[in-house]
Amino acid sequence: MSAVHLKKGEVIDLPIRRIGINGEGIGFYKKQVVFVDGAVPGEYVSARVTEVKKRFAKGKMLRLKKRSSHRVRPTCPVYRECGGCRLQHIDYPMQLRLKRELVEEAFSRYTSLDSLPIEETVGMDRPRGYRNKAQLPVRWKSGKVRMGMYSAGSHRLIDYHDCEVQHPETNAVLKAARQVLEELSIPIYDERSHRGGVRHLVARYAFDTGEAQLVVVSRDSRLPREKALVEALIRRLPQLKGIILNVNPHRTSVVFGENSRVLWGKEKVTERLGDRIYHLSAPAFFQLNPVQTEKLYDEVKKAANLTGSELLVDAYCGAGTIGVWLAEGASKIVGMDTVPEAIRDAEYNARQNGVKHAEYYLGAAEDLLSAWVDRGTEPDVVVADPPRTGLGRPLIETLTRVKVSRFVYVSCNPSTLAKDCDQLIRGGYSIKRVVPVDMFPQTSHVESCTLLEWTGSGSN
Ligand SMILES: C[S@@+](CC[C@H](N)C(=O)[O-])C[C@H]1O[C@@H](n2cnc3c(N)ncnc32)[C@H](O)[C@@H]1O
Predict the structure, then answer these.
(1) Distance, CA of 186 to CA of 394 (rounded, Å)
(2) Are 423 and 393 in contact (CB under 8 A)?
(3) Domain spans of the chain, in order of start
(4) How, if at all, do strands 25-29 and 240-247 pair?
(5) Which of 76, 412, 421, 449 is catalytic?
């Protein structure tokens, strides 16, 4: 990567070669890297330089001089402002190819591997309407309750219409809830003064069972007219099976607070994946794209290659979904998560699915696994599905110490995945397979399932 000597305001013509992790086109001008929003690899564009850093510049596209045959017209009316579906201007087969390239690029940047067994991205037949959950901030403005997404990189609300990647039922629940808040004049949170009540609406929809859950996140532990609120919601939304009030009194951008109360109906929503049933509390993590989750978990199953005798660790287990999916193959499953509701859901889900050989623990994977290994426990297979920040050094050190025969790394962030894999390779693991899975069509996010095996040599 060459140092950048472009000037702000300069107009340049350049070819676009790749996409970046935020979906921008990456072009090269006299070997200097220039990010151009909305440009597609294979295109040739004219751009004005808007920002200059040491290693890269940013440019605003002025003219398309050569158009990619993969460019399509985005269908969402707020595609530009929202910034969620950053790849909506690229056809779906090309999106899948570019996501594979993003994973490949991360590995080539952060590891010294010459070649990598990266498979084709596992895509969807219908890459819209796939999300089962939406959480939206609400605000009071000009006598109306407004609800929407934050525009990219700011706290400016873009009014929510029908989001194309959401399931229509989550859209319906959110829109009706907004309307009811307005009709009943329920107090709405004011971010600046930290006063008022409702700050977020969270809707979750179970594709298989058709159950919907609404969480009203409020600064206060009680809302005025709670009874009327519940009555109005259940009258309009027959798919609703539970209404939860979550209390978040903190000045924070974190959505959920620690305490919840059921206002009406069930505490958990029930979803089915394959022949497994999962019960999900409001704060517990559940994959957002249930159609692709089955494919992702099948990849995990293939990679774990259990024979019935293994001790399986499901680190970052959430509601226990992966362990339960793999249960028949393991002699024992041990799961761990930092969210108390997730651990309770995991225990419940194991029981409901007839899994008797699973144990779940509340705590950080890096602490618990290390402590078990110190006490002599030897897991055979570890599955880890961490947040975007990745595994962290303590867990990597434990994995290096314990030398598991198979480590299956499910990641939603190619950069942290590749960095962590680099450490694991130095510690004696080898990468056997990387499968990108498209959990978030139209966006630049890419999930992947990577199989590492202990070989002691750290090569492939
Ligand atoms: C990406 S989710 C995966 C959940 C689950 N495996 C699934 O497929 O639904 C990550 C999970 O890690 C949990 N978590 C975050 N930090 C953790 C840590 N240090 N140790 C254990 N779990 C953690 C979160 O609560 C969340 O449930």
Answers:
(1) 46
(2) yes
(3) 11-71, 103-124+289-454, 133-273
(4) unpaired
(5) 412
Rounded-to-integer distance, Cα 39 and Cα 13, Å: 12
Ligand 1, pocket-test mutation among 254, 338, 411, 448, most atoms within 8 A of CB = 338
State the Cα–Cα distance between residues 222 and 244, nearest whole angstrom. 12
315 Cα nearest atom in ligand 1? 21
Q: 317 an active-site residue?
A: no
Q: Quickly state the pLDDT bin for 459 (edges 50, 70, 90).
A: low
Per DSSP, the residues of 211-262 read -EEEEEEESSS--TTHHHHHHHHHHH-TTEEEEEEEE--SSSS-S--SEEEE
Amino acid identity, position 339:
V
CATH of 133-273, one of 3.30.1330.200, 3.30.70.3270, 2.60.34.30, 2.40.50.1070: 2.40.50.1070
286 Cα to the center of ligand 1, angstroms: 10
How confident is the model over 367-421, as pLDDT tens digits?
Answer: 999 999 989 889 999 999 999 999 989 999 999 999 999 999 999 999 999 999 9
Check if the interface score ipTM surpasses 0.90: yes
Going by C-alpha positions, the residue among 448, 411, 444, 438 that lies closest to residue 125 is 438
Residue 96 exposure: Cα atoms within 13 Å on the Cβ side: 13
Quote the CA–CA distance of 383 and 88 in Å, as a whole number: 32
Query: Is domain 103-124+289-454 classified as CATH 3.40.50.150?
Result: yes
Q: Please classify residue 427 by burial: count the beta carbons closer than 10 Å to its beta carbon, then call 0-12 exposed, 13-18 middle and 19+ buried.
A: middle
- Give CA–CA dist 73/230, Å, rounded: 41
Q: Could you report the per-residue pLDDT of 334-381, keeping only the tens digit for each?
A: 999 999 999 999 999 999 999 999 999 999 999 999 999 989 889 999
Does the annotation place 337 within a ligand binding site?
Answer: yes
Cα-Cα end-to-end distance for the chain: 27
Q: Is 426 helix (H, G, I), strand (E, B) or coil?
A: helix
CATH of domain 11-71: 2.40.50.140
pTM > 0.90: yes or no = yes
Q: Which amino acid is at 194?
A: H
pLDDT of residue 246: 96
Instruction: Report residue 454 CA to chain centroid gap.
Output: 28
Distance 150 CA to ligand 1 centre (A): 25
List Cα–Cα distances, 79 to 128, 162, 214, 449, in angstroms. Answer: 14, 12, 26, 29
